[in-house]
Amino acid sequence: MLKELKVKRAINGDEKAFISIIEEQKEKLYKTAYAYVKNEQDALDIVQETVYKAYISIDTLIKPKYFNTWLTKILINISINTLNKNKKVTYLEEEPMAEGSTTLDNKDTEIDILNELDKLDKKYKDVIVLKYFEDLTIKEIASVLEIPIGTAKTYLNRGLTSLRISIGKDEL
């Protein structure tokens, strides 16, 4: 209840209230950003950009009780944008292949999965990325995305089912 009052004050232009709320959230914001980018500097940049965007648009927040969800969505969107920017720079390393090696097949499969993952609904993709790329538990995923544990399990199941269907293989 106290937090909702701070959020209301922040919405009405109280900078101290906004700073206080962000101070309470900064560690969680950093952990979430780091879970996406796995890079300290990028995670810090993402947190900084999230705080800035939240500050300039807090007056658009209609229900103060959804502040955490709103802030997390901003953070996740910025994290994904950062990942997409970083994906554009690809370094290719030439590896000698042994006879009969399946490295190429495995790389093709990985590329197929990543391409299909990009086609998934954002909520399913977020859960799968946090589970399989960041090794978070369902409980941690629910906490990061601020959704119930049951919803996180459902999103994971539906996302994996969609991936299996779209790839047409039982590789997952």
Task: Kindly describe this structure.
Helix content is 74%, strand content 0%. It comes from Romboutsia weinsteinii. This is Sigma-70 family RNA polymerase sigma factor. GO terms for molecular function: DNA binding; sigma factor activity.
Regions with pLDDT < 50 over 5+ consecutive residues? 90-104
Global morphology: elongated
* Residues in β-strands, percent: under 5%
Q: Helix proportion of residues, in percent? A: over 70%
Largest sheet, described in full?
Answer: none
- In CATH terms, what is the fold-level topology of the largest domain? Rna Polymerase Sigma Factor, Chain: A
Question: How confident overall, as mean pLDDT?
Answer: 81
C-alpha end-to-end distance: 43 Å
Q: What is the overall number of helices? A: 8
Tell me briefly what this model is:
The protein is an all-alpha fold. It is built from 8 helices and no strands. It folds into 2 domains: 2-87, Orthogonal Bundle (Rna Polymerase Sigma Factor, Chain: A); 103-167, Winged helix-like DNA-binding domain superfamily/Winged helix DNA-binding domain (Arc Repressor Mutant, subunit A, Orthogonal Bundle).
Q: Top keywords for this entry?
A:
172 residues, Rna Polymerase Sigma Factor, Chain: A, Arc Repressor Mutant, subunit A, 2 domains, 8 helices, elongated
Secondary structure: elements and pairs:
Layout: H1 2-11, H2 15-37, H3 40-57, H4 67-87, H5 103-119, H6 122-133, H7 138-145, H8 149-167
Helix pairs in contact: 1-2, 2-3, 2-4, 3-4, 6-8, 7-8
